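Can anyone check this?
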Amino acid sequence: MEAIILAGGLGTRLRPYTDVIPKPLLPLGGTPILEIILRQLAAAGVDHVTLALHYRAEVIQAHVGDGSRFGLQVEHSVADRLLGTAGPLGLIERPRDACLVLNADLLTNLDYRDLMARHRSRGAPATVVLFPYRTEVPFGVIDVDGEGDVAAFREKPSVEASINAGIYVLEPLVWDKVPPGEYLEMSELIVRALAKGRTVATYRHAGDWLDVGTVESFRRGDEVFRAQRDRYLPSDGSTPPDGASPAGGARDMVVA
């Protein structure tokens, strides 16, 4: 399997930490988040990874090298400017088969083998991983009827939605929709596919997921990883289990 890790962002939400260290190399429990991801991918059977880089690319290149110490072949694609979450694909050679694409600021126990198997069973050009996100509206919500009168009043209701987890599987034909050098977000790439009548499949992950891209969520991720390191990097080298989290797991730790 091949994978692309999007690791070129500026990490502005994590300043001042990222003024010196690029976000993918910030450590959770002493281990850089990018290294956690690389080891997870290797355990899942990925053998080739391309790092899409921009900000402080040379620091990441020096740390990761050719990837051999992770059991991977790693290549580095360096953009001279920000290209969004999908634009960097235009600088990377079209893969031979379905390819995992994921953000470099995620702490998750997603089963990548199962994700790839589900993608292949659907036969869609793209699969987007979804995660259930629940938040509380901090105000009273009023529902109105057809006349504009109050129909119901809900005090600080909880709202749940399926959010984009920043993990995808893309077929090679998707590369045809990414012009080299164009700034493009993954959301726009998906919209383009839908506009062409393409099916975009989804994969619902009910396990752990945390975007560590803010100071608050990074500190939370550090606590979680220190407490449950083997949940994300099992000592036997196997892929972390999917499914519902134990106490202190996904629904308590998620911060978008």
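Reply from J.R.: I decoded it. The longest helix spans residues 215-227.
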